[in-house]
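Recap from last week: sequence in, structure out.
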Amino acid sequence: MPSYVSSIEDAVDRCACGYRKSPDQVTDLLEECGFLIDEVRVLPDAKDTVRWFRQVQANMDAHWAAGERPQALDEYYITFSNMIAAVERGAVSAYSIIARRG
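Predicted structure tokens:
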């Protein structure tokens, strides 16, 4: 993770991505906050991962015109663009974490 370089120029630390987290760090935090972890797995196929990120972006596009998205969602949107580029070049993996309140 320390050697990862963002695919987009980004002066803003969107979604705290500048502080990259391992799956263990994420699940530990969720458990500390009272969540029960049901499943953790790497998404198996880069094409499906990219398709999923693009579907989320398309859903946002369908509900908000450019410049009208709430800031938090806009940060996710831009983060997804970065993740798409990183997944396509094999630099990162995406995980599915299913958690529920304990």
